[in-house]
Design brief:
- Helix content is 71%, strand content 1%.
- It is built from 19 helices and two strands.
- It has 356 residues and is mainly α.
- The chain has a two-stranded antiparallel ribbon.
Length: 356
């Protein structure tokens, strides 16, 4: 049982919910999350591999192993200080990006819900702590969202390039910039977008998975080599699928009335996240959940903000579904018996300063 993650979730959720100063509550919660991540040891499937790679490779060795230059350079910089210094930096960079994004784009009364949705989702906290390079890339994406909002193409493109130096998958976010010039609230656009999404989930499911695997094999071969074509079980069964379809409807419906372009883009990415969560049956697709899962967590707050203005009964119903969904995910993940899910700190390691 991963009790520490349940305790972390409870504390980080209650603090911004109970404090009158929501910004202060958010800061405290993110600070606690930082400590949880910065002090972890051997937490996550990839942690041992990153640990050994850090000490066994120099800069040229990283590049020979097809590791992105940004991460290779980062490891070279931190090598004199040890691997745990890199983890502390990673945790601070990620938590700062998360804090700034939530502060900028999430209504204060829903800080607690976003934090809860993020920590409850194993694909975000656990997988993010394991996929160090990809989380660094995603953090860079969060930092450059203001450039996207301000329609500064050069600054945004430069940020994408920097993010791709940590994980090449970040390059796909360059496609967000043209969306800033589209009328995303257009009813026709939303209907067509929704129908395409439903088509991908149903009749085009196998074709879409084949395309993703083909792209991965062609341009990201190292991930095929490293993760293979392992099958993933769709979580939640029929009930989980029904709830995701409810979320899909809510995202598309709310997007029609959203005037903020960044929030509309969050809705689009959240809908794509629904597709990924529903269809992922390979390691290639699973890795994308890290990006789109956060957008789903952000979008929940916009849905509730909109629904509350329309119907208090509907608001209570949706809030209940969200809470049940998050609590179920948190308990399910915390109940996993695998050793990689066990949380221990660096103080329990006898090799803090000694390479493996």
């Amino acid at each position: 049982m991963l009790y520490p993650l349940l305790i972390l979730n409870l504390i980080c959720t209650v603090i911004p919910l109970s404090l009158q100063d929501k910004k202060k509550g958010l800061l405290i919660s993110i600070s606690i999350l930082f400590l949880f991540l910065a002090l972890r040891y051997n937490f996550g499937n990839d942690y041992p591999a990153y640990y050994r790679m850090f000490y066994s490779h120099n800069l040229s060795g990283f590049l020979d192993a097809k590791i992105e230059y940004g991460y290779a350079l980062l490891c070279t910089i931190f090598k004199p200080l040890g691997f745990f210094s890199l983890i502390i930096f990673w945790s601070a960079f990620y938590c700062l990006a998360l804090y700034k994004t939530i502060r900028r784009y999430i209504p204060p009364q829903y800080y607690w819900l976003v934090i809860m949705s993020i920590i409850s989702n194993a694909d975000l906290v656990f997988f993010g702590a394991s996929a160090i390079r990809q989380t660094l890339a995603f953090s860079c994406i969060l930092f450059i969202l203001p450039y996207l909002e301000a329609k500064k193409p050069i600054h945004y493109a430069l940020g994408i390039v920097i993010a791709s130096l940590f994980h090449q998958s970040a390059l796909m976010f360059i496609a967000l910039y043209p969306l800033m010039y589209l009328k995303l609230q257009n009813k026709t656009f939303i209907i067509i977008f929704g129908l395409i999404v439903l088509a991908f989930i149903t009749i085009l499911k196998s074709q879409f998975e084949s395309i993703v695997n083909l792209i991965t094999a062609s341009y990201f071969e190292k991930y095929i080599d490293r993760y293979g074509d392992s099958e993933q079980v769709i979580e939640g069964g029929l009930a989980g699928t029904i709830i995701r379809m409810i979320f899909l409807f809510l995202f598309l419906w709310s997007m029609k009335f959203e005037t903020n372009k960044i929030k509309s883009i969050f809705f689009i990415l959240a809908v794509i996240g629904i597709v990924i969560f529903t269809m992922r049956n390979s390691a290639s697709l699973q890795r994308f959940t890290l990006y789109f899962g956060y957008m789903m967590a952000f979008s929940f707050s916009y849905v509730l903000e909109f629904i509350k203005k329309k119907s208090h009964i509907f608001y209570i119903l949706v809030m209940t579904i969200l809470l049940a969904w998050n609590i179920n995910m948190a308990i399910t993940f915390a109940s996993q018996p695998e050793s990689s899910f066990e949380y221990i700190t660096i103080f329990e390691s006898d090799k803090i300063y000694i390479p493996l």
